[in-house]
Design a protein that fits this description.
78 residues, globular, 0% strand, mainly alpha, 51% helix, 4 helices
């Protein structure tokens, strides 16, 4: 999947540092590197992103759903 929204997501993930998105590529392509970065982001904030769905830190989805988007928006607005 390629899109401007994916580029925005990648820019955000890159801004979170190399522990989240070590490759730091902003291509607009949602492939395995972006998927892994989303999972690391979810693990970092698992109590806010995963726990509401009954998931643990060890169960990131890589899906940018409601709670993941909410956390991204919260961090962007600071």
């Amino acid at each position: 999947m390629r899109s401007f929204q994916v580029k925005c997501l990648q820019e955000f993930l890159k801004s979170q540092g190399p522990e989240i998105y070590p490759e730091g590529l902003v291509t607009g392509y949602f492939g395995p590197l972006t998927f892994s970065a989303v999972k690391r982001f979810q693990q970092k904030y698992w109590q806010e992103i995963l726990a509401p769905w009954g998931l643990t830190r060890d169960q990131p989805t890589g899906f940018v759903g409601q709670t993941t988007r909410a956390k991204i928006n919260q961090l962007i607005s600071y």
